[in-house]
Amino acid sequence: MKKSFFLIILLISSQIFAQPKFSDISGKTGSFSRMGFGARGIAMGNAMVAVTEGELVSYYNPAVTAFQEGNSINAAYSFLALDRKLNYINYTRRFIFGARREQEDSEDYSNMTGLTIGIINSGVSGIEERDNQGIKKGEISTSENLFFVGLSRRFSKTFILGLNVRFYYYSLYENISSTGLGFDVGIIYMISDNMNLGASVSDLNSAYKWDTNDLYGQQGRSTTDKFPMSKKIGFSYHFDEPEIITAIEFESFNNTTNFIKFGVEYKIFNNLFLRGGLDRLNISNSNFLPKPSLGFSYSKELDSWNIGIDYAFVFEPYTIGDQHIIGVNIKL
After folding, report:
1. What is the three-class DSSP state of 19?
2. Separation CA 72–CA 44 (nearest Å)
3. Average pLDDT along the chain, 332 residues, taken 10 residues at a time
4. What is residue 250's predicted lDDT score, i.e. its pLDDT?
């Protein structure tokens, strides 16, 4: 009997000590901002740090926007379990300083610049509010938002540098809210016409500062929650025939969690793409389940506009349902 009792205690203890490592990165501040951006990137496993074709967003690497062809607008809505929401909108444009619109497709690499503006909105609704007697008072919701502006500059045909400014706003409860300011830095180096090396560092200086003195009086306190800093490096290769983009990426968070990501995009014909990926293959902890994904997009030319529909499916291992992301992209 005693041996059985101690065996049960040992098993429970091992689970208690294993859990902090298992969920370390997921419990860090700003987890919504690390889920990816839009249907295309998420369908490709978020392995986008070195991808320079298609609709581009500085969220993954602020240097990539210098490659954007035309003006790109995209928005997406996510269907998530547990009353969560996750929405995206982004505008990206490439231009040349001092050039007229008809000159913007020239090969003047020295002045080629990319601009992007984006928003990620997330939150949880339907949270029951109860008093200290357990009586339901109503329902509350949270809203967490990331606003970012990115600029990139192409200094030569092969080297591009970019900078993102991130602004966070979190409305948690009644008068309890917080803001944060952070930065991303990224580079693209073109090894050849078909192969890119990309690298970025994200969430430099990002943090939430909280003050609950107004809510709790003398029991209130001031705290600071820092975001984990992300460091990424990756390669992409564009096959000409058939037209396939492949990408692999390594991401490290403060040297405590390390992920490998894979992504592929296959152009079936001019306006139809199939995508697949594997996100968050944790090489620091094999108990952490990765997130496979699939997706597609279809677009159609309407006068001078190209309007497309994107879709992504992501297997979520720790919820009762999976992710479905539907997006619209417009190229002018």
Report:
1. helix
2. 19
3. 45 43 74 96 98 95 94 95 93 77 56 93 91 86 96 93 98 91 98 97 96 79 93 97 96 89 96 96 89 96 92 91 96 90
4. 98
**Cβ distance 233 to 247 under 8 Å?**
no
210 token code pair: 């909280």
The whole-angstrom separation of Cα 329 and Cα 76 is 9
The DSSP-derived string for 103-150 is GTTS--GGGEEEEEEEEEEEEEEEEEEE-TT--EEEEEEEEEEEEEEE
Q: What is the 3-state secondary structure (H, E, C) of 64-88?
A: HHHHCCCCEEEEEEEECCCCEEEEE
Question: CA–CA separation, 331 vs 72, rounded Å?
Answer: 5
Distances in Å between the Cα of 220 and the Cα atoms of 89, 98, 140, 213, 214 are 36, 54, 21, 4, 7
Residue 40, amino acid:
R
As given in the structure block, the two tokens for residue 53 are 């074709």
| CA dist., res. 138 & res. 307, Å (int) | 42
DSSP code of 332?
Answer: -
Q: Which amino acid is at 116?
A: T
List, in sequence order, every beta strand (DSSP E) within the chain: 72-79, 84-96, 112-130, 136-154, 159-173, 176-190, 195-204, 207-211, 222-226, 230-239, 244-253, 257-269, 272-282, 291-302, 305-314, 323-331
Under DSSP, the state recorded for 227 is: P
Measured CA to CA, the distance from residue 292 to residue 252 in angstroms comes to 19
Neighbour count for residue 204 (Cβ, 10 Å)? 15
Q: How far apart are the first and last CA of the chain?
A: 74
